[in-house]
Design brief:
Protein name: Extracellular solute-binding protein
Largest sheet: 6 strands, mixed
Number of helices: 19
Distance between the termini: 47 Å
InterPro entries: Bact_solute-bd_prot1, SBP
Keywords: Signal
Organism: Arthrobacter flavus
Number of strands: 11
Strand content: 5-15%
Radius of gyration: 21 Å
Order of helices and strands: HEHEHEHHHHEEEEHHHHHEHEEHHHHEHH
Pfam families: SBP_bac_1
Structural class: alpha/beta
Helix content: 40-55%
Amino acid sequence: MKKSIRTGVVASVAAAGLLLTSCGFGGEDSGQDAEGSTSLDLLVPSYSDNSRALWEGVIEDFEAANEDISVNLQVESWENLESVLNTQIQAGEAPDIYNGGAFSAFATEGLLYTAEEIASPETLEDFQESFAANEQVDGTQYALPLLASARALFYNEDLFEEAGVDGAPTTWDELYDAAEAITETGTPGYGMPLGSEEAQGEALIWMAGNGGGFGDESEITVDTPENLEAAEFMKRMIDDGLTQSDPGATQRTPMINVFIQGQIGMVYGLPQTVGQIEAENPELNYGLANIPTASGEPATLGVADRLMSFKNDGDKAEAVTTFMDFFFAEDNYVEWVSAEGFLPTTVSGAEQMSGDETLAPFLDMLPSAVFYPTSNPAWNATDGAFKSLFGQLGQGMEPAEVLEQIQAEADAAAE
């Protein structure tokens, strides 16, 4: 971008964001106006406190370079994002461009443009092959990989020292012992967010750590022996009082904020958590380590969010392509993805960001990352089931029953 990222406008645009309803973008006409210009609706989640400002910066520069295209921005929390999207789809007002996770159900229902319809060959060729392949359904790419992330263990070194814990845990048993020791000092040992924001993420971190997972593009597998063992260990942590209170209703974002203030011993965090600590509590004495697993073998959650485009009336592919090509141009994209603290999905972006020491631990973990089966058409329903049902683990329900309920939702969606 020619202009620097506008982090200072967050407060001013937040008030404007209140004018946006949960089922629209505030404009009366999101198509072509009388003068032939095109208006695009863009629905995105909030990755950080600066997300709105970052997108506002992209849009300002894009509109300056493309005077015949305007972009209407709507920013939602991850907790509300999917319900907002579903409301818009049901009302026939799906966003022209959507930044989210699951996409295969939309593709199989014929709601999305293909990737070739919304990006130039040059843009498509710059995506790393592994990420591009993850955006396919039945051999056709529909979405554009926006960012990548891996999870790591963040631990409070002062609390570790106070509790007499020597070094970061590498296994579940060591994690349990460390959490127990820290809890005995009066601070929750481990933060376990099982609320609707990202219950599926916390679940997959633990299940991947026992050789489990959620399946692949052909089959969703939630109710498995490996996953059950992981859920049982999680419930043991909860029942033994080693987590924060009411984990079944705890959302990830506020829980990480509590860790940043030094009030939880350990959490699983993202690359952007490093930047949050630097901004909000730079004096925090913390360490980064691989995710503890049942055996100690490395495994972590990998996340690759994406941009996709809903067809709607089918006449905006050219304008969407113009926007995608602008956004994924090397300098524009690298500035955005680095400011949000994530890993790039493009070859050019990876080359430019390879020297970033902050990202190095997470880049090292990517080879052992397990991803959501987003190319499975039943994943949308499975994702929703985790968010609404898995928190029952922290409310007394037996793990076997919780997994059975989620598997039933997945199986029903696959029929």
